[in-house]
Amino acid sequence: MTDIVKEILARPIQLADQVTKSADEAQSFKQDCLELKAKTEKLAGLLRQAARASNDLYERPTRRIIDDTEQVLDKALTLVIKCRASGIMKRMFTIIPAAAFRKISMQLENSIGDVSWLLRVSAPADDRDDEYLGLPPIAANEPILCLIWEQIAILYTGSLEDRSDAAASLVSLARDNDRYGKLIIEEGGVAPLLKLAKEGKMEGQENAARAVGLLGRDPESVEQIVNAGVCTVFAKILKEGHMKVQVVVAWAVSELAAHHPKCQDHFAQNNTIRFLVSHLAFETVEEHSKYAIASKHKMSIHSVLMASNDTSPNEDEPATKNQLPMDNTTPIQMHNVVTNTMAMRSQTLSNKKPAQTQTQTQNLSANHPNTNHPNHAKGNHSTPKQQNHPHVSLAGTSIKGREFEDPATKAQMKAMAARALWQLAKGNVTVCRTITESRALLCFAVLLEKGHDEVQSYSAMALMEITAVAEQNSDLRRSSFKPTSPAARAVVDQLLKLVEKADSDLLIPCIQAIGNLARTFRATETRMIGPLVKLLDEKGPEVTMEAAIALNKFASPENFLCVNHSKAIITEGGAKHLIQLVYFGEQVIQTPSLILLCYISLHCPDSEVLANEEVLIVLEWSTKQAHLLQEPEIESLLPEAKSRLELYQSRGSRGFY
């Protein structure tokens, strides 16, 4: 930085010296040239002072001000050189307007004011004595730019309290106007904000994180923020910071991911997913037997190993790209599990069978020669002190002091963690796989049932996005939402409860999530069809439309069990509701309703219910509706469904052939 500033200042200082020398040699307009010389000498002194203080100068305004100053000195040099003409002929053909000196003099005054302001704004906070810096002449056309420069300069040179106040000022500017946010990024405000987020006190960290979240309003801005290193800084805070700061950081992560989905992978590579899930799981699922091992004295080693195998290598640290392959970590992890279990057992049996315990320990050491492996010492196994705790956790991130936070902060932390996971999961298979391999699914299920309104809402939105990705990715769908998975069953149960309740604000994302999982249910599991069919009747247009779309995913030919689901829809009375919606519904409802009616007609053409409800007449009526036939899917599907019904059902009677 010092070398760059000195290089910027070198030419203006050289030009100022040339102007001073040329003014002494003037043959005409001597008095005017002497006035220019005096102002130029004053400006040169300020420029040299700036060169000596180059360590403290804020680069962005320095470039802008020095560029303008250089142009003014160029013009001044040109003017005084004209005054050096000594011959009569030269003077006759050299025209110098009297207004030129006034114009250059005023410009030199402005440059003096600009450089003086630059020195003041770049000075350490202790040297300013809280003086009002004012606005430099260069800010006449854009005063807000000068205010941004001043706040960013404080972020570079001020005390922690002053930097916190400056970050709060930038928060206000970024919140008020998107253009101000772009200016803050362009003028180099991101780097000192991230530095404050790392080093500042709690209030300063909150202000810095909030400012960063507000600056990421578009993909280009988020890209610049990510390139500045925000992922590393935020990951460290989520791991070790104060919970109130972590709340703001989680919110900022959600904002950045929402405005630029390409940053999702950057956050995932820095273990942000793992830390967010850890906050989500804190005091949510720690009592669940799948994720913690109770200290039962008579617990078998087999049960411990089975619990270990059912979880990821680290309960808070799902497998990511940064982790070692499973085949390298499993032996050490399994040894840790066995060691922990044997330690607990030996503690219980020590009074009765000390000799036997000693023999078991010796055998265990002999069977595991890698006990002294360097990686083993760094593992997540319990220390002797930890073995006296009520339960032994296989692994996990421990964030000190968070159990002492007030309930409101804990609830807000969970809400923002769920919000961040929602935005990070959008359309990203890798992130969704990382989330589903952790404890997050079970957390979402618990929070949907017991969480506050905000965390319930974000949990539902996160599940909606994760299931949407799973719908398009068969590997993720099979691994994460298989019917035998306890977490997946818990999620489906909670989603179904909210759909059955039918009066929740979470209804639409829950409907969409169930529809996204349509291909994961078994043939015997049709319990979700009835609640969805009920939503087709006497509900708002948006709910009715989403219910019809979800049922379409059950009845679509892409679903292997489409025939079973179509029969269930008919059994639950879906045909009657669909007929009403096709005839009288709004167009956004008519389209998915007609498609669903076509599907069940294709799969169950011999249904007596369809014959009794005169579905064939509805399909014939639909063929005459131009606005419906404009839909490509209906245009190809409707004739096929109509012809198939005609094969099985008589138009005149309601019987069968």
Keywords, please?
Armadillo, 657 residues, two-stranded antiparallel ribbon, 2 strands, 69% helix, Adaptor_Cbl_N_dom_sf, disordered C terminus, ARMADILLO REPEAT ONLY 4, DUF7792, single chain, mainly alpha
Explain the overall architecture:
This protein has helices at residues 2-24, 30-52, 59-82, 88-93, 98-122, 143-157, 160-176, 178-186, 190-199, 202-215, 219-227, 230-240, 243-259, 264-269, 272-281, 301-310, 326-349, 354-367, 374-377, 407-425, 429-436, 440-450, 453-472, 474-480, 486-501, 507-516, 529-534, 541-555, 562-571, 574-584, 587-603, 608-612, 615-622, 626-629, 632-648, and strands at residues 293-294, 391-392. Helix content is 69%, strand content 1%. The longest helix is centred in the first third of the chain and has 25 residues, at 98-122. The chain has 35 helices and two strands. Strands 1-2 form a two-stranded antiparallel sheet. The radius of gyration is 36 Å and the shape is elongated. Residues 287-398 and 651-657 have low confidence and may be disordered.
Brief summary of the model shown:
The protein has 35 helices and two strands. With 657 residues, the chain is mainly α.
